Amino acid sequence: MTNHWNDIQHADVIMILGSNAAENHPISFKYVNLAREKRGAKLINVDPRFTRTSATADKYARLRSGTDIAFIGGMINYALQQGRIQKDYVVNYTNAAFLVNPDFKGPADLDGVFSGLNGNKYDKATWSYQLDENGVPKKDTTLQDPNCVFQLLKRHYARYDMETVCKITGGDSKEYEEIYDLYTSTCSPEKSGTIMYAMGTTQHTYGSQNVRAFAVLQLLLGNIGVAGGGINALRGESNVQGSTDHAALFHILPGYLQAPKASQQTYQKYLEDNTPKNSDPKSVNWWGNYPKYATSLLKAWWRDVDPEKSYDYIGKYDDDVNYSTIPIIEQMASGKIKGLFCWGQNPAVGCPSTRLVRRALAKLDWLVAIDLWETETAAFWQPEAGVDPASIKTEVFLLPAAASMEKEGSISNSGRWAQWRWKATEPPGDARDDLYIMSELVHRVKHLYEKESGVFPEPILSLSWDYAKAGMDPSAHHPDPREVAKEINGFFLKDVVINGTAYKAGQMVPSFALLQADGSTCSGCWIYCNSVTDTENRLMRRDNSDPTGLGFYHNWAWCWPVNRRIIYNRASVDLNGKPWAKDKPVIWWDGLKKTWLGDVPDGGGAPGAVHPFIMVNHGHGQLFSPGMTDGPFPEHYEPLESQVPNLLSKQQESPVIARYDKAVQEKVCDPMLVEGAAACVFGSPDKDRFPIYCTTYRVTEHWQAGQMTRWLPWLGELVPHMFVEMSEELAKEKQIRNGEVVRITSIRNQEGILAHAMVTPRFKPFTVNGQTLHQVGMLWHFGYKGRVTGAIANDLTPLVGDANTMIPEYKAFLVNIEKVRR
């Protein structure tokens, strides 16, 4: 989240798209309702299905799954055509005035693609800015130059007229116009609009660009950095924010540092590639401090080793290879990955194309599953999974884990608030907490290296692992999470003097501004520096006073970075430091005291001294974003599987989506499929055989892949069966009655899965370019283990991903449904 949960109450208009927040994030609705009660805020919901969120909305409209960019693109076009933009904000705080390389061409010029396309990859040479003699982007603040970002944006989205948008989405033009008018009214400086989204936005082959479209809209309206604004992700797990902060993703190190690539064999090359340079004196270019944060991380892990050396200890991934979910499945299936630790994950249910996942698990030598109950992943070899156990070679270890209330540590919510959670009770039986399991592994592997030597022992033997509780033997295997928190914050490794202030070795580093590139500081995650001081762990704070009245609660827990509750808050004021919205000021400049008041300001200096978007090297919000893999502007493409052509261009799907390797398809696909291996994975289905759009979703009563809820009798009783929801019109066409058992098939699984039919008016047929199309929705919580069981929805989903993040496309694929004749 750019903002935080409490801040939703300050919005004037709230748009929920790609999320059923009332069902899946019900606590968020406390703040939605506060905004409506206190400010008279209006709620917009856009969804393929009429949901609990839709039932509470002031304005509701439908769209076909996978057409979010068409809908938002239409709103961007509406804002530009109607002059519904915050002009001063756009000119001064975004890159709207930047002049782009005149050789750049977009989909309006090239019928659906951007300049530089070479096969399934873009050469971004033309996605660059024109620079002056100092290397600073040239600008036209009148926004009239045909090569300025603003004019390119207008040209790009002029194609997204209302008629075309509604033909693509299947939506109603009157409803769309009312929503466009309402939401773009937040361009007034005293107003703000917030966007709440979730997996319905991201789980597409262009999920990243869906979010980018939100960013473009919010920047045009001046809704970033302000109270009641922002782009606010409703995460699928309560600690997803913490897990990404601390590098659960394959391509990053803690604090969003980049994972080293094979081409970066030296530490200096790594720093050079990842440290942005900028000549604009007003650009803070905060990532210019990259060497300080990377060096401090290496010193946290290997305190007695020079970073030039310890950098060699980190594995390097091949430049053109990614190691996200889909390629991991590929690597397991091909035998390259021999073993897998599966920690609080259930890929046999939660991954795409789960039949292929279970076959890939069978290629492993060993699997370690760490969870509260026996999951489908841990039991993939059992008869319930439809296999002969004697045919499985994989050795499976199931380690019982401690639940959240049975261990101590921190949790970071979507608003970036890191809060301490204390242990309430001991875990049952042999269950152990994650920190213990990790530490035990480290100590045992270290012992093996000490005893037997082995290949490349230095990274293990030199690893700093001193988290024992005070007074305990340093070699104790159960670390103290409070000691881990100290290392995450970081401390001085030697006595130093910085800016005239002396710091002693062992003293906590007060802020990441004081981390050093010379090896004198360590920090396990630089963005968490300032969370622990010499006298307190700020994550434990519980002072609920709020002097600002804006829900900042600066002394409740701690928020990265440096307890700033709204990021990019320098954009909430004009060039004189005065808040755009006087009744909800985030920060403001006190001219007498020569200081900022309110929230922790994003970047120092007096008003007008620095550009507000300090993490972007040129300091401006990016309407044009050359860092994206699949284009600097969001462009509508169809999902990989679609019944209709792309009505905007001849380019049907994104040309750079993350596809699966064909050689591996042939190894892991079902040999019984007559269509062949390629169709098994990608799905180029016969449209007559698989005519129905399908999406997956969640219910309040179950959680993720079900391992935490299907074992609980009360929750299991509330939703005991796998179901597929369909419209009354489709049910009539298929002669299906509510509650009957149906078979759902896709090109990847023609045997199909069984589910109960839930026939409701919440789905309605779509009319897309004159064609009637049906959509259904399935729960993805069920599997073959637990007190309640059911078919696995992801046995049907495609193995294809977003070009930037590689997140799989769970939300739009084609199926068929037939009643099971008994």
Automatic annotation (TrEMBL):
GO cellular component, one term: periplasmic space
UniProt cross-references to Gene3D superfamilies, sorted A to Z: 2.40.40.20, 3.40.50.740, Dimethylsulfoxide Reductase, domain 2
Cofactor requirements of the protein: [4Fe-4S] cluster
Listed GO biological process terms: anaerobic respiration
Localization, UniProt: Periplasm
Domain called Molybdopterin dinucleotide-binding: residue spans: 693-813
Domain spans labelled Molybdopterin oxidoreductase: 2-442
Enzyme class: oxidoreductase
Ranges in coiled-coil conformation: none
UniProt record similarity statement: Belongs to the prokaryotic molybdopterin-containing oxidoreductase family.
Protein known as: Formate dehydrogenase subunit alpha
Species for this entry: anaerobic digester metagenome
Lineage: unclassified sequences, metagenomes, ecological metagenomes
